[in-house]
Amino acid sequence: MLKLSNPSWLYRLAPRSSSDVERVSSKEQSSSDVSRQSLESQNEADRLVNGQEWMKPRTHISKTMKWYWWCSLFCNILLLLLSGTLITQVFKNLGLNELKCAAMLSASSPALDSVEYEFIKFQGALDAENRFKGAPNDDLDQAWDEIVNMGRIRVSKSEFDKLGKPTKGSVQYPDGSFQGGLEVFHQLHCLNYLRQSTYPEYYEMEEHKPEAFHDSAKTRRLHLDHCIDMLRQAITCYGDTGIVTASWVEGREGPYPDFSTWHKCRKLEPLSQYTDMYAGPPDLKKPDDAFSLSEPPV
């Protein structure tokens, strides 16, 4: 009997069943699908490498990002301009100048526009000499007369209303303005009166006697107490925050105070000029129909 060593060739020659045909067809179809998918993948890879399809979605994102970038830039520039305008306006409104600061930190006064400032070092040494100190003489009295400007000024109705004073009974000039005077000169007058009172032997002499020294002893005492208290109120009102330092001095065991401190001061001359510029009538007589208070104002 013939013996076949490898019958597979018979299998290849034998007719196939329908199921076998279907399996072969399915395999061929699968192989074809795989080949087609592989080809499509290769084509897709080629397109990506060649920069065709992969650029399309990135082009859309780039336009969107560009729009956001320009919008952000515009908003930032707008905010910068608005901030600059706002800061400029705030600086203008606040003024950041000495006149507006003076107005904010002071009671209402028409003379505030004349305020000027300067830095001054006080002469605090006990033996410091200047023309306002020392034993009385004509030159010293002249120096005090120059800074004690007790002239009366005109205050307009609108400015007077800001002072918190009643118009009824107040001295009024024929032009409708009211009589006033700057406090600094009244305070200097009080200080000068105290100075003069410390030299009674000189100022009691008729040729040197000030007008206030012609009053009665009672009135002079009231005047002195009034001046002392007005200066007390002014000093405590200003609350000077200057720092008095101290030094070691030969021949002294304890610290020696240094009263020569720096201060930012209002110049007196512009205020004196303001008083002269808005001076009222020197001799004002009380009108017959003027309303009079029953007692002095308190």
Number of helices: 10
Largest sheet: 2 strands, antiparallel
Radius of gyration: 50 Å
| Topology as a string of helices (H) and strands (E) | HHHHEHEHEHHHEEEH
How many structural domains does the protein architecture include?
2
Form type:
flat
Strand content bin: 5-15%
Brief overview:
The chain has two domains: 69 residues; 174 residues, no CATH class. Helices cover 51% and strands 7% of the residues. The chain has ten helices and six strands, in the order H-H-H-H-E-H-E-H-E-H-H-H-E-E-E-H.
Describe the structure.
It comes from Aspergillus sergii. Pathway: Mycotoxin biosynthesis. It is a single chain. The chain has 298 residues and is mainly alpha-helical. It has 2 domains: 28-96; 98-248 and 255-277, no CATH class. The protein has 10 helices and 6 strands, in the order ααααβαβαβαααβββα. It has a two-stranded antiparallel ribbon. Strands 2-3 form a two-stranded antiparallel ribbon. α7 (183-197) packs across α9 (217-238).
Q: Which descriptors apply to this entry?
A:
single chain; 298 residues; mainly alpha; 2 domains; two-stranded antiparallel sheet; 10 helices; disordered N terminus
Give the topology:
Blueprint: H1 8-13, H2 18-49, H3 55-94, H4 98-104, E1 117-121, H5 138-147, E2 153-155, H6 157-161, E3 178-180, H7 183-197, H8 200-203, H9 217-238, E4 245-247, E5 256-258, E6 262-266, H10 268-277
Antiparallel strand pairs: 1-6, 2-3, 4-5
